[in-house]
Amino acid sequence: MLKHILSGDMPRSKILSLVLVVIFLGLAFAPFLFPGTRSLDTAARICIFIALVASYDLLLGYTGIVSFAHTMFFGVGAYGVALASVHMGRGFDALIAGTLAGALVAAILAAIIGLFSLRVRAIFFAMITLAVATAVAVLFSQMSGITGGEDGLNFKIPRAQTSAQKYLADPVLGVKINGKLLNYYLMFFGSLALILVFLRVVNSPFGRVLQAIRENEFRAEAVGYKIVFFRTGASIISAVGAAVAGSLYAIWLRYVGPDTTLSFEIMIDILLMVVIGGMGTIYGAVIGATIFVIAQNYLQNLMVVAADATSSLPLLPLIFNPDRWLLWLGILFVLSVYFFPKGVVGRLRGERK
Amino acid sequence: MSHPLLATKDLTVRFGGHVAVDAISCVFPAGELTAIVGPNGAGKTTYFNLISGQITPTAGSVQVAGEEISRLPVARRAERGIGRAFQLTNLFPNLTVFENVRLVIQSKAKKGFDLFSMADDHVQIREDADQVLQNVNLLAQRDTIVSALPHGDQRKLEVAMLIALDPLIYMFDEPTAGMSADEAPVVLELIEQLKNDQTKCVLLVEHKMDVIRTLADRIIVLHNGALVADGDPSTVMSSSIVQEAYMGKALGHVE
């Protein structure tokens, strides 16, 4: 049963299974285990980034295509929901219409870019995606009449998904059962569904062809696979996944702007999460995103503690200055790539190299 | 009128000023095993590349059962029945032996765009792949990652993938190169079996004369990109042009 849900792709390592179960339970019961607005926000971000990173892994890890346009698709989904909510008014219909429209636009964009540029060398595709993504980011920040420009768009989501809506008079286990909680579970189950779909896709006959193309495109073609269609297909699925994750993110934030979805920084973050977790595994996305988002949100706190604890010593407090958290994140990244070149998942599965 | 299974007409490719394949016209009927010989640099592999589509010709045509295919991409030619095993081992290195063969059979079964079933649930494809592995004596290595396989076994897998593709036109490029003396017969026997099928033809680039003598129905000789001899093995091997172009040179260089 479980095997079927996971599409036969078991973690294949006891420690990995344990880590995944811990992450799953931690996120499933996050509102009860880690009460507070900030921790709930972190948990929601983890859910969304797991889905986003997994969709990127389909492209980078499974098909061997480097794309820099993943945030563009993320943004298309997010702006879809925002624009629909602004123009159609607050409501579930706006959220659904926005998500579907975002996914459709993402699919069309991915198909066009893919068919034009995936025929030739992969490096050309990387350059094209970089150019298109940059152009779209500039476009979105300039067309302020439609997109709100640099300020972005604030919008309202249905009352049923906000803390104003109370479902039970009394808190359960100290947690208020309100619309905000419901909204969190929309993020959780939305991301879970995306992950299960990706697991199925990578273990389908189609997914195996993607791996074959990554391994040896020359041979994949010689045995009869038209690789440009497979690459474009992978690119479309990945783009739609990113767009849906973007829609979820916009619903969670009730805001969309260039910095939250389209920025190149997020693109780099996605790359780091895939590499840290382990490319070509999907589970790597789960682990990479969890580690990274937690580090992003709590490394500074940890450093405050470390700086205080070492305040009487020379130099150390300076090194642990919370403003230097990015430096530490960088060091963590370098170390993880050095010691786990196949990512955390590759390491736990005990793969060679 | 019936067309030969495979034919090339004035097939030519130039790289800059160099004519690598020079107007080769040749017909390969079904049921025949043709050995293609010639010294290194004669254009044998380039001729293969033109037929299977890795290179587009400068002029001339390639026809499968009378249909022009010389402008089609590689994958479309594979669909038309052209199957190729490569001289330099050309596999999916980080996948298992089984998965390499399974991918070929899946391609043949046109299941590549099946997105939402599990690959492992396709029982027929799985069984067919296992059958091919059994035929080439690789079933014991089924779950080994290809890059960890000894060179001889990789060569065997290369042949297995071509057999799994079940093409109309089999193209082998030095199939036994780098194999040990006790491994080569397994592969040669498989190639010999293909000769029994009167609907297919086999093209074999080979240096080893004993292999050619036992297998080939016919020999064509390439030299400097041109076809210089074509006929049954005993006639071709004794002709003076071959002695001069091929044997003379082969004696001159050390393998």
UniProtKB/TrEMBL annotation, chain A:
Matching CDD domains: TM_PBP1_LivM_like
Transmembrane region(s): 15-34, 46-74, 94-116, 123-143, 182-202, 223-250, 270-295, 302-320, 326-345
Compartment list: Cell membrane
Superkingdom of origin: Bacteria
Classification via InterPro entries: ABC_transp_permease, LivM-like
Keywords: Cell membrane, Membrane, Transmembrane, Transmembrane helix
Presence of the UniProt keyword Transferase in the record: no
Membrane-protein topology: Multi-pass membrane protein
PANTHER family recorded: ABC TRANSPORTER ATP-BINDING PROTEIN, HIGH-AFFINITY BRANCHED-CHAIN AMINO ACID TRANSPORT SYSTEM PERMEASE
Protein's name in the database: Branched-chain amino acid ABC transporter permease
Organism per entry: Maritalea porphyrae
Automatic annotation (TrEMBL), chain B:
Any Pfam family the entry gives: ABC_tran
Claim: Nucleotide-binding is one of the keywords in the record: yes
Coiled-coil intervals: none
Domain ABC transporter: 6-249
Keyword entries, A-Z: ATP-binding, Nucleotide-binding, Transport
Naturally occurring in which organism (per UniProt): Maritalea porphyrae
Protein name: ABC transporter ATP-binding protein
Key word Oxidoreductase present: no
GO terms for MF: ATP binding
Stored InterPro entries: AAA+_ATPase (IPR003593), ABC_AA/LPS_Transport (IPR051120), ABC_transporter-like_ATP-bd (IPR003439), P-loop_NTPase (IPR027417)
